[in-house]
Amino acid sequence: xxxxxxxxxxxxxxxxxxxxxxxxxxxxxxxxxxxxxxxxxxxxxxxxxxxxxxxxxxxxxxxxxxxxxxxxxxxxxxxxxxxxxxxxxxxxxxxxxxxxxxxxxxxxxxxxxxxxxxxxxxxxxxxxxxxxxxxxxxxxxxxxxxxxxxxxxxxxxxxxxxxxxxxxxxxxxxxxxxxxxxxxxxxxxxxxxxxxxxxxxxxxxxxxxxxxxx
Length: 214
What we know:
Distance between the termini: 38 Å
Number of domains: 2
């Protein structure tokens, strides 16, 4: 039993498909005390040889693999959801998870699934967002952390971080600079959601104001 008045630790389930750099940034934030009140309960991948999965094992996290290729989406997502429930996950974080989620999966974790996207949504949704932004010639780029709904890169925005596009940039350097902002933004967004100090008004994530002391 937890001591009276002590808030329960929020358990994260992190879904990856590749190298898992955002997962590692979250893990580092927790370890270094910049993200408090949370722990990583399980790291799940839909790709058996995802580099991030091996890093998760090396760090001692529970891991699971559910191969998505060739498997019906609903069946695959049901298996992933069951694993998340088994690990008592409170908040699901997509960290380079290259799959669209089924409505049933989203419904199982309402307003408890976060995603990070390498553009200032709603601009440049979908794949290769950094290349899209560079090719379009934008002067400001960045990243977005948002709740996941049934549409691609569409849910209510929690926070965004912006950077200038430099004249010296190419798509590769721009992507690298955006990724550095992603590593900051995801932990900040998790902290905001875990605090519970917000409400959703239509599509808008609104932080509650601190009560006045005057």
